[in-house]
Design brief:
heterodimer; A: about 230 residues; mainly alpha; 12 helices; about 0% strand; globular; B: alpha/beta; seven-stranded mixed β-sheet
């Protein structure tokens, strides 16, 4: 009985704790989408830039999902050169195109309604897509999944030390970029200031430079409640 | 607990001697220090009964606990924390739009036949916020807008315009065409479609049928064009225009003076002396936005030692008289007599005899006014209110002519008007006669609600029974709809094309922002449908009328007969410009010069037959003529003078209350011409003896769940001859009572320490704040001075003045340093080095919370008129819920802004000027907007156990809803009482009316909280109603504290957009500044944008050129509210300066 009570005393918090952990709840979430769109094919193999479809990412809070007509530009069912226009996977797209009923995608990265993430604020200052969304260029037809837990603690980690994640804004959509590609890092390695292959040290060098250049705010500003909550 | 006015005694009537000096008070309870009030103050959260919770039975507790367990279980077994959301992208994204980025469109809003320009914010296709158009000649200023580069980002807007957005998403709006059959008490209502209505109307509109149309006023080209076509199609049809809040007396007065109905345009920015006779030209006039802005220009010049002077005579306080330098309340008949006396005093030719003014105050007022007017001849205005008879309006023209105020560049300009030449009352009277005589076979009512608001003696409802077929187009199924054979759903103004004309005649365009939600059609579409017009869509109807107007630059309905054929879509570029601007620039009525004919006295006729009581009818400052009765924001808005929400009590003066034995909430019976009404009383300070003031529009019996049953139907007393004033009425006490929710007794500043025994030193201290420490002191909450006194201050060096001569100065010594004190000090140092010239000129950056910007606000009490626009703008911007009357009685109203109206002097007094230096029989009013003032040293932050309210680095006292656990310690510790607590999920109520007066004894449904119907999950907020939410602001749930955020969402939107652009430019190698600082005007808070007098300034203290820097660093009137607490508010108030005649 006593052991049972003790066991229960441990078991319940353990189940609740683990069960409500953001990692358990969010990470790896991969809903089935109405169209088996493959980022791996379009971005990874064909080399489309993220902003080809997610056009608003530099100006708006949302990195808008593209309208049907963006897809139709290549996969035009009426044009002779329509890419893969007979593929059964595109039927849902064509149905939307014909009926005017838009495609209902399932939101994967879904923050709490009281958190106001803004893509433009991050992307223009050197936070890469990959920092939050993972290697989308390797996510195939099974759909995009949530690579990070997107908890507040996870956000704050970066707001405290942005230099660990920043890269030149010109490289934000280059998901394969590593700090070792940076010219300054290469020079530093040559000069012996950084050990070859020391990615952490290289990132710190690049991140600190970008932070300075782009006037990224100090930790107090970045952690103020009004930065994310309205 | 409902508070009752202390039993009126002669003591109260003549005024209990103030304890000390000048005493400010917000309500009669406070004035008399009623024990109920003291008790209410002693309770931090009134009517909150913890015993309800402690007394919970075990069974109830288990039930609750079980429910929580079940919910917890759901959470654990569910695989996601919250429901799946969908991303539904456009099929084809409209060019220039960006999902999630709000867009602004120009449109217009019409009320009483006059159009106001609006800028509507649309978020992903749904309108969420309405602001005034800066391009509109009345509520904006095209010269200052300049395509977005000027300093005027928004035009001002009144409460009706701002709250109109809520009407779009009112779930009570009618949703389909209805065919009513059967007798009234067992009415059958079939839902049909428009086509069936059209078919059914075939025989009703056939040859030989006598057709009549009753419509609301509208002067827009498309409306007049469609009307003309309808009348061409049905040549025998009659057309009547009815607006219950018409301006018949004005029109008739002008006609008598000039021989034709001219329209007057007052330029208050040139008027050094303004005399108002029962007129509330600051808020209750189609051009009041322009009046208020012009007026405020000559008030703010007090800082240069120059100021206009406003004289106000009326029967009771209103917004204008509460801001007047000299005001006097008299009976309506005496108002007329005083105008006569003024004419005699000024020597207006034709007026020789005036009624004798019995009261020395009346005589003194007229003499002072006459003297002032003569000194400022040519730069003065005499204006008479719409409820006063036409003769007075005519006389006012002669007076203005005598003073040389009329003319193109003078204070009053005259123009033609396109108003219907038939007076509203005549129109509806003759129509009703025809109807009653069976001379109308088919009646089409376009908008309005005549059964409810037509003159009571006409008995429109009975006449309607004699009409063959009747159809009523309206937003709601209202009193008129259910008595007609057909009800037609009207499209909301944001759902359809339309047009109208501004007060100055500028042709305005109504552009839809959203498709009709409920199959509604506009008045012009309905007319076109019935007249078999080839154009049927609103767009085509507007477009073809506008083509003519655009080409002519004007619109003349006589000249522009549409020849038929395809719709003229030429002048496309100018049409597009008009759609963009929401108006046709340069189409104002041309000025005309006219000289009034012979004047004659008007007062004698009205003062010959007066009773003991006179009744004055006013428009309701919350529901207008009743059309906004179902608007929760407006219903819950505290009325500007009495602060009554959810009601329209009869105003009775303090002396009458004493003689009739009345207290607030008592019900009286008023009899006007054999018509009776029982109505609750509000004892109102400053009101004349023998006057009862009634506002029109409440007491609705149909037309939505919010408005139904609120207040009293005062239209039942208003006859054809008593549209403005009844000079003879009977008033008797009934012995019944009715609970009244007034917020004048809520949120008393720093009064929480007032103890029962009154001996506590803190109690004395709290009282001192209003009273002052010794006789003659002003107290320290409201800072007020006369212009003469302020002129003395202006000679002093530095910032010292009446507003801050008791200033304590900041005490920077703290128990411990703020965490970032060093960084902030360093930043201040940098800023001072960057702007040495400004520093030399007296500027100082913020010394704390100054990275990167330092946000601050100033509220100018000299400019504030107390119109409530800021309150509604804030409610709309920040998703603030409506709580209902019962909750308001419990001090639970949620508006983040409130306007404290303080009175000083004696409640029974009726004027604010002394007849001799010892005269103490005076009273005055002050409006003081209060919202969170973002203390740098915030008392709320220090007591929050979970750090849910903390500062950010730019000076915002942030409220983190997701962290708040609802202890309410912060509210307890806030000396300014600006925090609001969500006692319930107010938003999730399907019908906020459930919170309304439940009709139980005492009227308060203070049920145990478990019985409240909000145990439904939070996502049951009505699907239509939730569309009004601003997606940039969190919708707060039950148990969470909230308050003003300085519109943090607007700050962030501006900052992020500037920074993203800056970073992109930098990446692209373009030259950029070192940091993308926001400029003054880049962030406009909701309250600031709506304010008609620009009394609110918001900006960056780190920027020496910003308005707030200028105010807080250099203006002598700036002061910190309750500075002695060392809370160091970021919002500073600016003292009130008035310009009375020296006694």
């Amino acid at each position: 009985m006593l052991i049972g009570a003790l066991g229960g005393g441990l078991y319940v918090p353990a189940v609740v704790g683990l069960g409500l952990n953001p990692n358990t709840l969010n990470k790896g979430y991969q809903p089935e989408q109405p169209i088996p769109y493959s980022h791996e094919l379009h971005v990874g193999q064909l080399g489309l830039d993220c902003t080809y479809c997610h056009t608003t990412v530099n100006q708006a809070a949302f990195a808008a999902v593209p309208p049907v007509e963006t897809c139709i530009a290549c996969h035009n069912p009426g044009a002779a050169a329509g890419v893969k226009k007979n593929s059964p996977k595109l039927q849902a797209l064509y149905a939307a195109y014909e009926t005017g009923q838009p495609v209902e995608w399932i939101k994967v990265h879904d923050l709490a309604d009281y958190a106001y993430f803004n893509h433009a604020a991050h992307v223009t200052k050197g936070v890469s897509c990959v920092s939050c969304h993972g290697r989308v260029d390797r996510m195939g037809e099974e759909g995009v999944y949530q690579a990070e837990n997107l908890s507040m603690g996870w956000c704050i980690d970066c707001h405290r030390e942005p230099e660990k994640h920043l890269r030149p804004p010109s490289e934000v959509t280059n998901l394969a970029w590593t700090p070792l590609d940076d010219a300054e890092v290469i020079a530093a390695i040559k000069a012996g200031a950084i050990k070859a292959g020391d990615e952490d040290a290289a990132q710190l060098l690049v991140g600190t430079r970008i932070k300075e250049q782009y006037n990224v705010h100090n930790a107090a500003y970045m952690q103020a409640c009004s930065t994310c909550h309205r | 607990m409902s508070l009752e006015t202390p039993t009126p005694t002669t003591d109260l009537a003549t005024g209990i001697e103030p304890l000390q000096g000048q005493r400010y008070w917000r309500s009669l309870h406070e004035y008399a220090q009623s024990p109920e009030l003291v008790e209410k103050i002693a309770q931090e959260f009134p009517d909150y009964d913890p015993d309800e919770l402690l007394g919970m039975s075990r069974r109830k507790f288990m039930k609750l606990a079980g429910a929580s367990m079940a919910l917890a279980g759901l959470t654990l077994t569910g695989c996601r924390r919250w429901p799946k959301e969908k991303v539904v992208a456009h099929n084809s994204r409209p060019e220039g739009t960006m999902p999630g980025v709000p867009e602004t469109y120009a449109s217009m809003f019409q009320r009483g036949g006059v159009a106001t320009g609006v800028f509507v914010t649309s978020f992903d296709g749904r309108p969420i916020h309405v602001a005034g158009s800066p391009l509109h000649p009345i509520c904006g200023d095209p010269a200052r807008y300049d395509g977005g580069a000027g300093d005027l980002k928004y035009g001002s807007a009144d409460v009706f315009t701002l709250a109109s957005i809520l009407g779009v998403y009112d779930p009570d709006r009618s949703r389909s065409v209805r065919h009513f059959t059967g007798p009234l008490d067992q009415r059958q209502a079939d839902r049909v479609d428009w086509a069936e209505f059209q078919r059914a109307m075939g025989p009703a509109l056939a040859e030989g049928q006598k057709i009549a149309v009753l419509s609301e006023a509208n002067a827009g080209p498309a409306f007049l064009d469609t009307k003309k076509r309808f009348l061409k199609r049905y040549p025998d049809a009659t057309w009547a225009t009815w607006e219950p809040l018409h301006r018949d007396n004005e029109a008739e007065g002008a006609k008598r003076a000039f021989g034709k109905p001219l329209r007057a345009h007052y330029d208050t920015s040139k008027a050094m002396v303004l005399a108002t006779f029962d007129s509330n030209f600051l808020t209750d006039h189609p051009a009041s936005a322009k009046h208020a802005r012009g007026w405020s220009k000559l008030r703010k010049t007090c800082d240069q030692g120059k100021m206009s002077r406003v004289y106000a005579v009326g029967s009771a306080m209103n917004v204008t008289s509460s801001n007047a330098d000299m005001h006097l309340q008299v009976k309506p008949s005496t108002v007329a007599a005083m105008l006569d006396a003024l004419a005699v005093e000024l020597g207006v030719p034709g007026v020789t005899a005036a009624p004798t003014l019995t009261d020395p105050a009346e005589q003194a007022f007229v003499e002072m006014l006459a003297k002032d007017l003569l000194t400022h001849a040519g730069e003065s205005i005499v204006v008479v209110g719409p409820s006063q008879p036409a003769g007075m309006h005519a006389l006012a023209w002669s007076i203005n002519q005598k003073l040389g105020n009329l003319g193109p560049d003078k204070t009053i300009t005259l123009t033609e008007t396109s108003d219907d030449p038939v007076l509203c009352v005549d129109a509806i009277a003759s129509l009703t006669q025809q109807m009653a005589a069976g001379e109308v076979d088919t009646l089409l009512i376009l908008g309005g609600n005549p059964v409810f608001d037509a003159p009571a003696d006409l008995d429109f409802a009975a006449a309607l029974e004699n009409v063959g077929v009747s159809a009523h187009l309206s937003l709601y199924e209202d009193e008129t709809s259910v008595r007609c054979d057909w009800h037609l759903p009207e499209a909301h103004y944001l759902e359809c094309w339309g047009d109208g004309r501004a007060w100055d005649g500028t042709i305005c365009l109504q552009q839809p922002i959203i498709e009709p939600l409920f199959t509604g059609k506009s008045a012009i579409e309905t007319l076109a449908l019935l007249s078999g017009d080839e154009a049927v869509s609103g767009y085509d109807l507007v477009r073809r009328a506008w083509s003519a107007a655009i080409k002519a630059g004007q619109y003349d309905v006589q000249a522009s007969a549409w020849p038929g054929g395809p719709i003229d879509t030429s002048a496309e570029r100018r049409w597009r410009a008009a759609v963009h601007d929401g108006l046709l620039a340069g189409s104002a009525y041309p000025a005309v010069s006219a000289v009034p004919g012979n004047a004659s006295a008007s007062g004698l006729s009205v003062s010959s037959n007066v009773g003991v009581f006179q009744v004055e009818f006013r428009s309701d400052p919350k529901v207008y003529d009743g059309r906004f009765a179902n608007n929760g924001w407006l219903q819950e808005l505290p009325e500007p003078i009495t602060k009554v929400a959810w009601d329209n009590p009869a105003w009775v003066g303090v002396k009458d209350a004493g003689s009739l034995g009345l207290k607030t909430g008592d019900v009286i019976k008023i009899t006007v011409d054999e018509r009776e009404l029982e109505v609750a009383v509000f004892v109102t300070p400053g009101q004349a003896e023998g006057v009862v003031v009634l506002t029109l529009g409440q007491g609705r019996q149909a037309g939505g769940r919010i408005g139904r049953g609120v207040g009293f139907d005062t239209y039942r007393l208003r006859g054809t001859d008593t549209q403005g004033v009844s000079y003879s009425a009977k008033v008797v006490k009934t012995g019944k009572s009715h609970p009244i929710a007034t917020t004048s007794i809520h949120h008393l500043i720093d009064a929480d320490r007032l103890k029962h025994d009154g001996t506590d030193w803190t109690a004395a201290g709290a009282l001192d704040k209003r009273v002052g420490k010794k006789p003659g002191d002003e107290g320290i909450i409201v800072k007020q001075a006369s212009l003469d006194r302020y002129k003395q201050d202006l000679k002093l060096p530095g910032q010292k003045s009446f507003a801050n001569d008791d200033a304590h100065g900041d005490v920077s010594l703290q128990l411990y340093d703020a965490p970032l004190a060093k960084q902030f000090a360093q930043r201040a140092q940098e800023l001072m080095e960057r702007h040495p010239d400004a520093v030399a000129d007296g500027w100082m950056p913020a010394t704390q919370f100054n990275d990167k910007h330092a946000w601050a606000m100033t509220i100018d009490m000299t400019a504030c008129i107390g119109c409530n626009a800021c309150v509604i703008a804030c409610q709309s911007e920040n998703n603030i819920p409506v709580v209902g009357k019962d909750q308001v009685i419990m001090s639970r109203e949620m508006q983040w802004m409130r306007i404290d109206s303080y009175y000083r002097g004696k409640p029974g007094a009726t004027r604010n000027f002394k007849l001799d230096p010892d005269d103490g029989d005076v009273m005055d009013a002050v409006h003081m907007p209060v919202t969170c003032i973002h203390c740098e040293n915030a008392p709320c932050e220090q007591v929050c156990p979970v750090a849910a309210t903390v500062h950010d680095t730019e000076g915002l006292n942030t409220m983190v809803y997701n962290r708040c656990i609802g202890t309410r310690y912060c509210s307890n510790n806030c000396p300014y009482k600006v925090r609001r607590f969500n006692y319930f999920d107010y938003h999730s109520k399907l019908d906020s009316a459930q919170f309304r007066n439940s009709g139980k004894p005492g009227g308060i449904a203070n049920n145990p909280w478990l019985k409240f119907p909000d145990q439904e999950p939070g996502d049951t907020i009505d699907q239509i109603r939730r569309m009004v939410f601003n997606p940039d602001v969190t919708v707060r749930m039950r148990g969470v504290m909230e308050k003003c955020t300085y519109c943090t969402q607007r700050i962030n939107r501006a900052k992020i957009s500037a920074k993203a652009q800056w970073a992109q430019d930098k990446t692209a190698g373009k030259p950029v500044d070192d940091y993308p600082y926001l400029q003054d005007g880049d962030v406009v808070t909701a309250c600031q944008g709506a304010c008609p007098t620009e009394a609110i300034a918001f900006g960056n203290l780190n920027d020496p050129s910003s308005k707030v820097s200028e105010h807080q660093n250099k203006n002598k009137r700036s002061y910190k509210l309750l500075e002695e607490l060392n809370s160091r508010p970021r919002t500073q108030h600016m003292g009130l300066v008035r310009n009375p005649v020296k006694a």
